[in-house]
Amino acid sequence: DAYNQAFRPQYHFTPQSNWMNDPNGMVYYNGEYHLFYQHNPHGSQFGNMSWGHAVSEDLVHWEELDVALQPDEHGMIFSGSVIADETNESGLFPTDEGGLVAFYTSAGDTQDQRIAYSTDEGRTWTKYEGNPVVPNPGIVDFRDPKVIWHEASSQFVMLLAAGNKIMFYGSKNLRDWDYLSEYGQDVGAHGGVWETPELFQLPVDGNTKNEKWVLQVDMNPGSIAGGSGGQYFLGEFNGKEFIRDEKDQGINWVDYGKDFYAAQLFNGAERPIWMAWMSNWEYASAIPTHPFRGAMSMPRTLSLQTDQSGEVQLVQQPVEEMKDLRMEPVYEMADKTISEPVQLSSFDRQTYEVVAEFKVGTAREFGFRVRQGTETGEQTVVGYDAENGYMFTDRQYSGVTDFHPSFSGVYRAPTKIKENGTVTMRIFVDRSSVELFANGGEEVLTNRIFPSLTSKDLQIYAVDGEVNVESLKIYPIESSWK
Ligand code: FRU
C-alpha cells in the first residue's frame, strides 16, 4: 500500500513520493478544492520546484493529480495562488465562463511574478505570453503572489513578500498590476526574511457589522519555536493600504509549535479555511520519511474572537469535515479526579483525536502522554503547565529525533485558565504529527514526531497534585487514504 509507511500521515495530505513544501494555488472551484503545492517531482530534496496538484470534494480525502506547472527557461516555479476568473475579466479565456488563473513566482536569476491559465479545472495550464506581469523592481526576495478579490474597491489585490515587508498591488484584469503600498518594515517580528503573505477579512465574535482584516506573514528564521513560522496583524485594508489597529500591539504568533508554515486560504470557498506546510525550514530536508518528504496540516477554519482580557485573536479549529473520519469513541471519562497516571489499557492506536476538558486543581502539570512505547521508551507529552500558565508539547523522547540537532525540544504557548476554572485540549495524533488545539483553538501547537509503529500507548497524567477530568473522549481516526 503506497500510503502505509510508519511515518506516513493517515489523515494529512502527503504526495505519494518526493519533496513537498508550501501549499499553493488553493481555490474552491466547481465543487472541488484544489491544493497545489511546492513540489520536486524528481527527488526528495528541495529542487526542480514545480506545482504539484491534488483535489478533494470534502477537504478530507485527497487525490493526487499530475504535476501542474513545471520549471522553464525563466526559472523554477515558486509559491503563489489561484483565482477563479469566472467572468473572464482577464480576457485570457475563449468564453465568458472564464477559468482559473495561477500566479506564481518565477525563480531564476531574479524573482518576478507570472501567470498561467487553465480551461480544464486546473488539469493543464498555459503560461501567459505577456509574462512577467510584475517585473522585479530590484529586490532580491520578491515573491509569493497571493491574489484576492477585494470587493469594496472592486479590484484584485496582490500581496508580495519583499524581504522585510509586504508589497500590495492592484488590478482590474489580473494582467496589469499597479503598485498600491507596502507594509511591515518596522512592525512585528523580523528575525528572518518575510514570505508567503495572506490577507483575509473576518467578523469579530461572529458580528458581520464588525469585520477586521488579518494580514498573515511567514518568516524564516526567527519564529517563536525556532526556525520558520507565521505571525499576523489585525487591522483595516482600504483597497490601498493595510492599517494596523492601534490596539493590536506586539507580535501575534499563528502557531506555537514548530511545524506550521506558509498557511494559505482557499480562494472562492464559503468559509475561511487554510492549510499549511507541516514542517520547518530548519530541518525540512532531513525529515526521516520515505519515499516522500513533506506533509500538510489539516484544513482549519478561522475566526476572530475576543478573549478574556478583551483582545481580539485569531482562533483556529480543524474543519468540521474531519469528523467524517472519526470512529466511535473507544474511551470516555467524566467528572473524575486523578492524581496518578492513568494508563489506558490495550489502547493500541496510532491515529486518534482526544477531546478533553480539565478543571484545574492542585496539580502542577497534567495532560497526556501519547504514542508511548514501553519497550521503545518513546512518548510525546502534550500537557498544561498550570504553574507557569502554558500549553506545551514535549517531543524530546518522541522517537527518531537525531536527524537534526534542532528537532528535539519542548514548545510552549501561553494559555490562561478560563473564567470557569477549566482548560480544554483537542489533540490530533497521527503517524508522524501531533496538533494541539487548546481552549477551543485560541492556542495551537503543531509538531511533527517520528515514533515507532509499535509506540501506541496512551496515558493521562497529573504531576504533584490533583486535576479533575470534567470530560474526556477519545475517537480513533480512520485513514483518509482508503
Ligand atoms: C516559503 C518559500 C517561499 C518560496 C517557496 C520556495 O516556504 O521559501 O518564499 O516561494 O518556499 O519553495
UniProtKB/TrEMBL annotation:
<dbReference type="InterPro" id="IPR013189">
    <property type="entry name" value="Glyco_hydro_32_C"/>
</dbReference>
<dbReference type="InterPro" id="IPR001362">
    <property type="entry name" value="Glyco_hydro_32"/>
</dbReference>
<dbReference type="InterPro" id="IPR013320">
    <property type="entry name" value="ConA-like_dom_sf"/>
</dbReference>
<keyword id="KW-0812">Transmembrane</keyword>
<dbReference type="InterPro" id="IPR013148">
    <property type="entry name" value="Glyco_hydro_32_N"/>
</dbReference>
<keyword id="KW-0378">Hydrolase</keyword>
<dbReference type="GO" id="GO:0004575">
    <property type="term" value="F:sucrose alpha-glucosidase activity"/>
</dbReference>
<dbReference type="Pfam" id="PF00251">
    <property type="entry name" value="Glyco_hydro_32N"/>
</dbReference>
<dbReference type="InterPro" id="IPR018053">
    <property type="entry name" value="Glyco_hydro_32_AS"/>
</dbReference>
<dbReference type="Pfam" id="PF08244">
    <property type="entry name" value="Glyco_hydro_32C"/>
</dbReference>
<dbReference type="GO" id="GO:0005737">
    <property type="term" value="C:cytoplasm"/>
</dbReference>
<keyword id="KW-0326">Glycosidase</keyword>
<feature type="domain" description="Glycosyl hydrolase family 32 N-terminal">
    <location>
        <begin position="12"/>
        <end position="318"/>
    </location>
</feature>
<dbReference type="InterPro" id="IPR023296">
    <property type="entry name" value="Glyco_hydro_beta-prop_sf"/>
</dbReference>
<feature type="domain" description="Glycosyl hydrolase family 32 C-terminal">
    <location>
        <begin position="322"/>
        <end position="475"/>
    </location>
</feature>
<comment type="similarity">
    <text>Belongs to the glycosyl hydrolase 32 family.</text>
</comment>
<protein>
    <submittedName>
        <fullName>Glycosyl hydrolase family 32</fullName>
    </submittedName>
</protein>
<keyword id="KW-0472">Membrane</keyword>
<keyword id="KW-1133">Transmembrane helix</keyword>
<dbReference type="GO" id="GO:0005987">
    <property type="term" value="P:sucrose catabolic process"/>
</dbReference>
